[in-house]
Structures are given as structure tokens and as C-alpha cells.
Specification:
373 residues; 2 domains; 10 helices
């Protein structure tokens, strides 16, 4: 991965942004008339759950879209196109509670902080795990313990995303005392049918050693954009879609136009300084084009025409032009990669992706209004 990709990936969840453009609640928009050019697009986006308005019965069609809002829309767009429900992650405030220890009555008696990996077990054999003195004093040596591990939503941070599909449970077999490498250990052995307990314990332990404080600061809090960012990070880790590479490519196109607009002539290395860069800044037309093409398969964007915008080399722009998702901003069919997007214009783009019947045959701006489409 390039430095800009790593920077985008590492900061996209940590950023504290302004209030969301798409608040929860039943949309009844006093600022959208049936006569407005964008009304049918807003209707599609609301009906499909892509957009929800800005609160107080308003859609705010002229509000300029931020990059974070565009990322959230991109996550929803992928989920909708894939026909899956948008996930809601529930991450505990204490990161050690990603692994909880329960007794036979179902009472939590400890967490990952009470466990220590001693050695790797043989395949499919019970795994011995050292437990803390405090836990032993609490439960004794005859307890029936259960380990419950739920690390869904942490795909971005871990190398064991293939073990994050469902919560996992492991039951104790017996209390044991072992001497390993001349050291005395007390703990319990736990059954494992798929030989994955060691991988899970090692993965979560390794993650918390380097990211525990970061987790407490950024991931345990419920923010309006967190689930979307975790969703996109999951797509990246599973190599299903890479919005970070898409943004990197868009920023490097057209003689670094978007890169300069976003970072105000800073060097790419300055992106690592989170105070210098924030996803709450404006989303440009080139950004949204790149994000859409990152999460929508090419077969869902068949060309309706062979024209391409004359003012950009961005491949995503050409794809969406030919698919009738985007139209030009003027009579020449120019794309204007660095133009800002309003919520109304974003609705036009998303609705045309979801409903092919709304796609345009012409690449020329229609009626002087559809700048976002």
C-alpha cells in the first residue's frame, strides 16, 4: 500500500466530524418540492435507505457534501447493491471485553486480561490457558468456564478477519497445572473443534497490545459514521472493495488536482498528522465518482454511450459517464472533477446507480440544474 492509502485507512475512523448530513428519523422534507429536478432522486434514496435528511423535516438539498458523508453513503450503497442488511456493530467500552469469561450460571467473571497464552496446542486438542490469580480466587479449580469472543467489526485492525464472521464460544475441559520451560502455570484447558482458539486469543491479544488505547478513544463510542467506516474497512480487509485505493487514484489523477484541493498543497506525508487533515472537508465530484466505482461491480454499470468527459483522465468518471450515472456540468460535457457536490446532486448519482431506469442517455448538462448528475 502507498503512504497515502495507509494514511487514509488509518484516519478514516478516528476523525471527529461535524453533525451528520443524514440523521435518523422519518424523512418528511419541507424543502423538497415535487417540482424540483432532484425530487425523484431523493425519493429513491429515501425509499432505499441510502439517505435520510438532515433533521427537523429537512433534506437540505443545497448543503455541500463532506467526504465523510460520502464515505457513509458509499458503505450504504455497497450494502444495498449487495442485497445485505447494513450491519450495526456493538463494541464494548473495555476492549478486553472483546473476550468475556462466564461461569456456569452465565455470570461474567473475567475477560481477556485474565488470560495468558502459554503455548500453541496440537491440532484440535484442548488448549491450556493460564488464568490470573484473581480469577482463580473467584471461581476456584472446579469451575465450568466459557470463553465468548466477539470481534466482529475489527477487520481493519486485525490479520484474523477470517475468524470474525460469527461470535465464538469455547468451553473449559478441566483445571490443570503445568510446568513449561521450567515455569509453573495454573489455568484451564478449553475445547476447540476447529483448531482456532489459539489464533483468536493470539490475534486479540496482539491487537490490544498495540491498539488498546486507540480502541478506547475511538471505537467504543457510538458515532454516526463509525459503523459505516468499520463496514468499509471490512470490505478492504476481505479484498472485496478498496475505497482507499480508489481515493488515492482519484487524488493522483488530473495532475494531482484533487490531492491539492484536499490537502491545500501539503505533502502526502502530512496526512499522517491527523490535525492537518479531516474527512469533514468537502467532497468533490471526482471523489464520489471514485468511491462509487470502488463498491459497484463493472457489470452493474454497463455503458449506454461511448462518450467520455473531455476534461479529466479519471477512469471512474469515464465509467459513470458512459453508464449514464453522471452528466456534464456544461454544454461541452465537462466533468469538473474539483467541483463540490450538494446533497441533491449526490442523491441523483446514487439513485441512478440503484435504479437503471433513471440513468441518462445524454452526457450534456440538462436544464442547467443537474450538475451533480
Amino acid at each position: 500500500m502507498s503512504r497515502i492509502q495507509i494514511a487514509l485507512l488509518s484516519i478514516c475512523i478516528t476523525i471527529c466530524c461535524s453533525s451528520p448530513a443524514f440523521a435518523q428519523g422519518e424523512p418528511a422534507f419541507s424543502d423538497v418540492s415535487s417540482d424540483d429536478w432532484f425530487a425523484p432522486y431523493v425519493e429513491v434514496c429515501v425509499e432505499t435507505g441510502l439517505m435520510e435528511g438532515t433533521g427537523e423535516g429537512k433534506f437540505s438539498p443545497e448543503k455541500e457534501l463532506t467526504l465523510m458523508e460520502a464515505m457513509v453513503l458509499t458503505a450504504r450503497l455497497h450494502a444495498k447493491n449487495a442485497g445485505i442488511g447494513f450491519p450495526s456493530y456493538s463494541l464494548p467500552a473495555d476492549p478486553y471485553d472483546l473476550l468475556r469469561i462466564y461461569d456456569s450460571k452465565g455470570t461474567q467473571v473475567g475477560n481477556l486480561a485474565d488470560l495468558h497464552i502459554v503455548s500453541m496446542p496440537y491440532a484440535k486438542e484442548p488448549m491450556f490457558v493460564e488464568v490470573s490469580d484473581g480469577l482463580l480466587e473467584q471461581v476456584g479449580t472446579q469451575a465450568e468456564l466459557t470463553l465468548h469472543v466477539d470481534v466482529r467489526g475489527l477487520q481493519y485492525y486485525t490479520s484474523f478477519y477470517n475468524l470474525q464472521d460469527v461470535p465464538r464460544t469455547y468451553t473449559s475441559v478441566a483445571y490443570e497445572e503445568q510446568i513449561i520451560h521450567e515455569r509453573f502455570y495454573r489455568g484451564y484447558t478449553f475445547a476447540q473443534e476447529k483448531d482456532d482458539l489459539w489464533s483468536v486469543l493470539w490475534g486479540v491479544t496482539n491487537y490490544l497490545e498495540s491498539n488498546g488505547d486507540y480502541y478506547r478513544t475511538n471505537l467504543s463510542a457510538e458515532t454516526w459514521y463509525r459503523d459505516a467506516m468499520l463496514y468499509l474497512s471490512g470490505l478492504f480487509s476481505k479484498e472485496e472493495a478498496d475505497v482507499y485505493d480508489a481515493l488515492s487514484s482519484a487524488w493522483n489523477a488530473d495532475d494531482y488536482l484533487l490531492g491539492q484541493l484536499h490537502i491545500n498543497d501539503l505533502q502526502y506525508s502530512d496526512l499522517m498528522n491527523e490535525s492537518r487533515f479531516c474527512l469533514s472537508q468537502f467532497c468533490f465530484r471526482g471523489d464520489l465518482a471514485a468511491l462509487v466505482c470502488a463498491v459497484i461491480p463493472p457489470e452493474n454499470l454497463p455503458p449506454l454511450r461511448d462518450t467520455t468527459p473531455p476534461d479529466t483522465e479519471l477512469a471512474a468518471a469515464a465509467t459513470l459517464y458512459q453508464a449514464g450515472i453522471l452528466t456534464g456540468v456544461d454544454s461541452e460535457g465537462n466533468f469538473n472533477s474539483g467541483g463540490r457536490l450538494t446533497c441533491a446532486e449526490a442523491a441523483a448519482v446514487l439513485a441512478r446507480v440503484i435504479d437503471p431506469a433513471l440513468r441518462c442517455q445524454s452526457s450534456i448538462q440538462e436544464g442547467g440544474a443537474q450538475l451533480g448528475g
